[in-house]
Amino acid sequence: MVRALAPCLEGRRIRRAEFFSQLILRHDPGKIAERMRGRRIAGVERHGKFIVVRLDRGVLVIHLGMTGKLLVNGEPGAYTRAIFTLDRGRLLFDDIRMFGSIECHDAVPARVARLGPEPLLVSLPEFVERMKGRKTPVKSLLLNQGFLRGVGNIYADEALFRAHIHPRTVAGRIRPARAERLHAGIQEVLRQAIAAGGSSISDYVNLMGEQGWFQMELRVYGRDGEACVDCGTPVRRIVLGGRGTHYCPKCQR
DNA sequence: ATCGGTACCTGCACGC
DNA sequence: TGCGTGCAGGTACCGA
After folding, report:
1. CA distance linking residue A65 with residue A98, whole number of Å
2. CA-CA-CA-CA torsion for A153, A91, A34, A113, nearest 10 degrees?
3. Which residues interact with strand B by a CB < 7 Å criterion?
4. What three-state secondary structure class fits A139?
5. Which residue from A51, A46, A252 is spatially nearest to A139, judged by alpha carbons?
6. Does the nearest atom of strand C lie within 7 Å of A106's Cβ?
7. pTM score > 0.85 for this model?
8. Which nucleotide is nearest, taking the CA of residue A96 and each C1'?
9. What is the pLDDT of residues A73-132, one digit of tens each?
10. What is the reported pLDDT for A25?
11. C-alpha dihedral, A137 to A142 to A145 to A150, nearest 10°
């Protein structure tokens, strides 16, 4: 999404920012709108799941939460929570559940800057080092954005399936050989999902409002009761750390 | 410092 | 048809 967003936004000027829900904002809507008016967009970056829009003065930090969408030149609807009118075109922020957020800061806030490394860039030795001593289930650790930035519930389950690791395994007790499989599994599933345009299970669409196709390739996520693609055993669903967790009880010990 | 549980919000699929 | 329940790609915050 950021790759597509950057060429649309870079160099543009924000004529107007309008907000239709208080919930997605961390600060006063009027103040944010005023602060953004007339700003020029210098660049767009991804920091894990956070989208950072660099302005000529300050930064805009956007998170899509569960159901957030950014739409370029789309039509506003019932779930449009913000409209950014640019000198050329406009950007909509739609979000049914309103777990998404839009913040304005002088610089990238510490809680975003201090996220863990990017999963597609982290080296195997660093990955192994960061798992040491962690007593939490490996699935919970994958969801912890301070451990790695950007892995969410779908890809955590899919990565563990590829690595043949049970989601409840205590992270710090995973041996190097299996950690290597996990490192590879995370990178593989992320690369494949990006290539497929993301997973459109109910809401996700890209900037143009088009769905992705990786939901067709999911091996365990959302497949509870269905046959494991490798061994035919029914995929199991448990709740771990408050999140639905899907795995094959035979392939993942 | 780390961990588990809960809250936040709306819509949908399901069983009765 | 209508209603209650559980579930959903997220993070923040609390107490232990």
Report:
1. 7
2. 30
3. A 23, 78, 96-99, 134-137, 140-141, 144, 146, 171, 241-242
4. helix
5. A252
6. no
7. yes
8. B10
9. 999 999 999 999 999 999 999 999 999 999 999 999 999 999 999 999 999 999 999 999
10. 87
11. -160
**How much is the mean pLDDT over chain A?**
96
The answer to whether the beta carbon of residue A202 comes closer than 7 angstroms to any atom of strand C is yes
Contact indicator for A119, A187 with CB cutoff of 8 Å = yes
- Name the residue with the least CA to C1' distance from nucleotide B12: A202
Amino acid residing at A175? R
CB A218 within 8 A of CB A154: yes
Instruction: Find the Å distance, CA of residue A175 to C1' of nucleotide B9.
Output: 41
What pLDDT is attached to residue A37? 96
Find the distance separating the first CA and the last CA of chain A, reported in whole Å. 35
Q: At residue A209, what is the residue type?
A: G
Mapped onto helix, strand or coil, the DSSP state of residue A29 is helix
Which DSSP string do the residues of A145-196 spell out, in sequence order? TTTSSS--HHHHHHHHHHHT--TTSBGGG--HHHHHHHHHHHHHHHHHHHHT
pLDDT-derived band at A52, boundaries 50, 70, 90? very high
| Amino acid A199 CA to nucleotide C16 C1' distance, rounded Å | 37
List the structure tokens of A11: 């160099």
Distance of A244 CA from B16 C1′ (whole Å): 25
Res A252: pLDDT: 97
Place of tokens 């030795």: A125
- Strand C at less than 7 A from CB of A58: no
Question: CA A175 → C1' B2, Å?
Answer: 21
Q: What is the CA radius of gyration of chain A?
A: 20
Angle at A108 between CA A15 and CA A10, to 5 degrees: 40
Asked if strand C comes closer than 7 Å to A99 Cβ, the answer is: yes
